[in-house]
Amino acid sequence: MERPRTTTVSHFRGRSTKVRPTLHFPEATEEEFAVEFGRFLDRTNGVAQSEQLFDLLSAFALNFDCRWVAYGSITSNQKCLEPVRCNPAVLLNFPEEWQERSFEMGYDRIDPIVKTCRTRPDAFRWSEVYNDVSTTEDERRVFDEAATFGLRSGISVPLHGPDRGFSIMSFAQVWNGELHNRTITYLQLAALHFHLKVTESAVSSDTENEPDLSPREKECILWIARGKSSWEIGRIVGISSDTVNFHVKNVLRKMDTPNRTAAAIKAINLGIIDV
């Protein structure tokens, strides 16, 4: 079986409750945290490419000793994370060996972090999930094995959106321990900023790619979506069936679709028509 190009995978562990200072800010003040966050915001200003944004986010996370970062989206009827629609590249930097192992074992299908994110509004430590009474032994085994690949502790941030869909941002460390509450706050803010930037870019891309249909073309494809033939559409709008076919042909070309049905479905999904 071919391994998918990208997926955010199970990556959790955290039975230790020890809190240790971060690598770069062992005695960081609130002002220093705020300065680093401000720099992250400044560096992302004007950046639209999700890959560049992810690189900047990863660099910011390193300030807090979080070497591994992952971002993925999920809809209400999915059971595991998938790459965000607007970004064909990998949006995670987890060890390649762990990605392969997780896919091979199907760990993404029993990911307890996805389950937790469905009901949690804010960031949480992986140790909370590991120690939760509802977590199964199979799920804990995923945690334990992930730790052998260097994913030993961290947090996940649920990023909820419309239609019950959501995205998940995860930050992981190579040592056993817990992140400070203050660190979690800044990582959560950075994750939200990243998510909004990526979403904004996706919306802009969809708008730019929307076919430019004329009023008559929209009218014809609307009636096609309502099940009308060319002859019936001609009678309704007061033109010949040949003229209807001419407009429909233009719609198929502009929307890059093979037939009328596909064009009608695409027009509905893009919000061009409303049946």
TrEMBL record:
Coiled coil: none annotated. Keywords: DNA-binding, Transcription, Transcription regulation. GO terms for molecular function: DNA binding. Gene3D superfamilies: Transcription factor LuxR-like, autoinducer-binding domain (3.30.450.80), Winged helix-like DNA-binding domain superfamily/Winged helix DNA-binding domain (1.10.10.10). GO terms for biological process: regulation of DNA-templated transcription. PANTHER family: DNA-BINDING TRANSCRIPTIONAL ACTIVATOR DEVR_DOSR. This is LuxR family transcriptional regulator. It comes from Mesorhizobium waimense.
